[in-house]
Amino acid sequence: MSKTILIVDDSGYSRSTIKGILVSAGYQVIGEAKDGVEALDKIVELDPDLITLDNILPDMTGLEILRALKEQGISRTVIMVSAVGQQSAIQEGLDLGIKAYITKPFDPKELLEEVRKSLTA
User: Fold this and answer.
1) Considering the entire predicted model, what is its pTM?
2) Cα separation, 87 vs 2, whole angstroms
3) Quick one: which of 80, 75, 76 has its CA closest to 49?
4) In 3D, which of 17, 73, 50, 33 has the Cα closest to residue 120?
5) How far apart are CA 44 and CA 24, in angstroms?
6) 3-class DSSP state for residue 30?
């Protein structure tokens, strides 16, 4: 069985791009979310093996989603994929347990390598 992935990004273009890269590499994308509330619901509902998480969403940040998961005792493998590349945001994400932080625009090979490493770690 292939590993399951949830894509969280407010940009339909970004979700489509990430999904295309992952599906072509054999991963199963089981859902997409365009905002934080939808993301939190789908994380609980779908129980993905990995989440790609944008940091800037219409209703909350990816870091706020990570904090909410931690408060609820929910642990998931997360890779942040965001245009926000400030070191403070990257460090806070790492402190909250993300496996990697990829800055947009990104190389598809970089995304696949981080997904592979995160799912085999």
Assistant:
1) 0.96
2) 33
3) 76
4) 50
5) 26
6) strand
**Helix, strand or coil for residue 10?**
coil
Instruction: Kindly state the helix (H) or strand (E) to which residue 121 belongs, with its residue range.
Output: none
Local structure of 4: helix, strand or coil? strand
The residue assigned the tokens 């940009």 is 11
In order of 25, 81, 88, 91, the CA distances from 115 in angstroms are: 10, 11, 22, 19
pLDDT digits (tens, 9 = 90+) for 24-82: 999 999 999 999 999 999 999 999 999 999 999 999 999 999 999 999 999 999 999 99
Residue with structure tokens 């991963």? 27
Tokens, residue 97: 């347990």
**Residue type present at position 98:** I
**90: alpha, beta or left, given left = phi > 0 and alpha = psi -120 to 50?**
alpha
Cα torsion angle, 31, 116, 101, 97, sign: positive
Whether 42 and 33 have beta carbons less than 8 Å apart is answered as yes
CB-neighbour burial class of residue 38 (10 A; exposed 0-12, middle 13-18, buried 19+): middle
